[in-house]
Write a structure and sequence with these properties.
Layout: H1 3-25, H2 32-46, E1 53-54, E2 57-58, H3 65-77, H4 81-85, H5 87-106, H6 111-137, H7 143-147, H8 150-161, E3 166-169, E4 188-189, H9 193-202, E5 207-212, H10 218-221, E6 225-229, E7 232-238, H11 239-246, E8 251-256, E9 262-267
Helix pairs in contact: 1-6, 2-3, 5-6, 9-11
């Protein structure tokens, strides 16, 4: 390749290298990527293409165009994470080409600027990605152990195949596992640990997934399967173990909800 062509198209080689490295070196990252993949997975398995859903509920945070584009990739290549993650980089490439086009319209006489604009954009993006990778390598745990939810998702999948319910605390964690585990059944979100405890008592043969600091509920971490995740840990345990750990150690109080009903709360020591 001549020096002139290298200067003209070198940014494209750099973009391809960055794209391949990003797809290989890191898994889909919470919260956004795993959530979007889960929404796209529910759309795919339920054939509900008009209204996106997350864990069985309407997902109105984003318009459906992104999820439609992911469906197109899966229609051609099958259900996989890499074709879905190609959507944003391809639109990024399109944005670079539009920037070059705009530059030629505004400054048609500045030929050198036409060549430098895509290099500037791609090199800046590369520097930011390299900084992100460097920061992750400087952490105590590698990137995959911080963000890979595949292992815990497979456990959820196997549990659901056995006909058991799985509850999740906190509730907003329930949209992180559908795609990684290819789940077909809905998780049961629990907004508070008190309600998760109450749900455990009602479903003694179910499973409970918690995202919390080990120092907060140390007894549970001795019973369940623990996986480091982000700045805390995931623990997957049976509700029977939860009930055994806290049986007799909690205190029940009842408060008036203001609507003539009594609401039970659980105080965990």
């Amino acid at each position: 390749m001549s020096e002139d062509r290298l200067n003209t198209y070198g940014w494209l080689v750099l973009w391809l290298t960055l794209l391949v490295a990003a797809l290989i070196c890191r898994p889909p990252m919470p919260i956004d990527e795993t959530r979007y993949l889960s929404v796209a997975w529910e759309m795919w398995q339920k054939h509900q293409f008009l209204v996106p859903q997350s864990n069985g509920l309407p997902y109105s945070h984003k318009p459906p165009l992104l999820f439609w584009l992911i469906q197109v990739g899966w229609w051609f290549f099958g259900v996989n994470p890499w074709s879905a993650r190609l959507t944003s980089p391809l639109f990024g490439l399109f944005a670079v080409l539009l920037a070059v086009r705009l530059t030629r319209m505004l400054w048609p006489e500045r030929i050198e600027l036409h060549k430098n604009i895509p290099q500037l954009i791609v090199r800046t993006t590369t520097a930011l990605v390299a900084l992100l990778i460097f920061l992750h390598l400087g952490l105590d745990r590698p990137l995959h152990s911080l963000y890979d939810v595949t292992a815990i998702s497979r456990r959820i999948e196997n549990t659901q195949k056995e006909g058991q319910l799985v509850a999740v605390f906190p509730a907003n964690l329930s949209d992180q596992f559908q795609f990684a585990g290819r789940l077909t059944a809905r998780l049961v979100p629990q907004p508070t640990f008190a309600k998760a405890r109450f749900w455990s008592q009602q479903h003694p043969d179910a499973q409970l997934l918690l995202f919390t600091d080990p120092r907060k509920y140390p007894s549970l971490f001795q019973k369940g399967t623990v996986l480091p995740f982000k700045n805390a840990s995931l623990i997957f345990c049976s509700t029977k173990d939860v009930n055994a750990v806290y049986n007799g150690s909690e205190k029940r109080i009842f408060a008036d909800s203001g609507r003539g009903k009594k609401v039970a709360a659980v105080l965990v020591p």
